[in-house]
Amino acid sequence: MKPLLLFSAILLNLSLLAQTTAPQNPSAPAKPAENYSGTYSFLQDGEFVQINIEDEGKVTGFVSRYGDTETDRGLFLDHFFKEGKLDGKKLSFTTKVVHGLWYDFKGAVERGDGKKVGDEAYYVLKGTLIQSNVDSQQKITTKSHDVAFKSFPQDLGDTPEKK
What we know:
The protein is mainly β.
C-alpha cells in the first residue's frame, strides 16, 4: 500500500509542477485582428484614402485628392500620413501639409453594407475629419466634417475555398 501512496504523491507533485511551469496566456485572442488595410472613398468622387495597418497598431497611408486652389486646381495631390494609429477599432491619422492644407481624422472602423470581405463598403471609416489650412499670413482655419469613408471593392484573387 505504501508504494501506491508514494507513487500517487509523486504523480500529484509532477502534475502541480507542470501546471506552474506551463506558460499561461488566458487573455490570448481567439483569432488574429481583422485587417482593415485598403482603399477607402474620400470627400469627392475620384479621391481616396489608402490605409495600411502595420505591426502594433501603426498606420501608414495617404489621402489622394484634387487640388482646389488657383495654383493646384485639377491636380492630384497626395497627403502622406505624418502619424497614424489603430487601437482596436479606433483609428486616427494626421497627414503632412501639402500646399498649406492637412487633415486630422479621428474615428473608428465599422462593418458596412458589404456582404463579404472584398465587397464595396465591407468596412467603413466613420468619424470626424478636420481640414486645416494655413494662409500666407500663417493664419490657420479649420473645417470639421462628420464622414463615412467606404472601402473600395477588392479583387481578392484566387483565394482557397473553405472546406
